[in-house]
Amino acid sequence: MKKNYLLCGLLVIQAVAAYLFLSGGGELQGHAGIQKLLEFNREQIDEIRVEDSNGEIAELKRKDRTWLTIHDFPVEADRVNRLLDLLDELDHGLAVASSSSAAKRFEVSPDNFQRHLKLLKGGKIVVDFYLGTGAGARRNHVRLANQEMIHACTIGSYDLTAEIANWQDKDLLQVEMAEIQSVELDGLKIIRAQQSEAENAKDQEISRWFAEGLVGDEIFKADEFESQLRNLATLRYNRAFKDSIAGQGPEAEVTVSFGDSSRSYQFFKAKDGDNFWLKVSDFEELFEVTQYNGNRVVDNLMKEKLIEQPELEESPAEEIAESHESTLEAESDKAEAIVDKE
Predict the structure, then answer these.
(1) Domain membership of residue 198 as a residue range
(2) What is the rounded distance in angstroms from the CA atom of residue 232 to the CA atom of residue 313?
(3) Are strands 252-258 and 261-269 parallel, antiparallel or unpaired?
(4) Are both 40 and 70 inside the same structural domain?
(5) Which listed residue, 127, 138, 167, 290, has the most CB atoms within 10 A of its CB?
């Protein structure tokens, strides 16, 4: 009987222990469940501010449905949308820490952070959080400004760049080749003309490039020109900035007419380094272009590279002179041969 009582007691203890374990485990699981980090309506966000530990600040604003820098320069819309998508999908598990000392250690405190992000709506802060040290592959520590808890989330400092140049629209100067109607450079005006060509009994419009201003029998290299023009039409820049080029002469100047617009490109040597500074007629800013991209235009989109000079035909007098010279050389060779035999 005693054994039965003992067995019953053990069974009761095990049942109570199992209940406590399962109930405690359920509570722990609830706390450890994945939760959304931020709550905001992305359609209402009209301002983004990113600050880094060096005091660099990138400020972006939305005007209608277009994103601009604080100085009204176009921003790469896709990059802004990717950031808002990323922030909207951020989630977290259990907090990794919650003390002020941990906030400093993980670099998510007001006086020690890697990035400080604010999303605003109508001048009011909607999202305010700090991003700090790495917490594993593609993860960093983050802390909401109004909370003490520190979480590890899938976001990196590269997603929150404070360099305004990284937000600028690098495709801003690009032009569709099919829209270009004429180009002026180095005393040449090159025009796109449409010609009909019969193929399989169907007339097709084919564009050809023709150069005005050729002299004599000069030949225009239309294919070479189109190839080099493409380098200009697809040009990307490193950064746009305000500066002066007063007193500098351009290395090259090209004017392009496309659609209903016309744009002048002037390439200058940068004041420092080997890159180029580009001034275009429809923007106040200067654009920094890499040495490689700049040289592709400056060295190749020029008259001497696009015009083939005809070979000069020899005059009858020159032909007679050459023939006489050849005869003299032959007779001289014979005389030397005879002397050698003797």
Answers:
(1) 177-308
(2) 37
(3) antiparallel
(4) yes
(5) 167
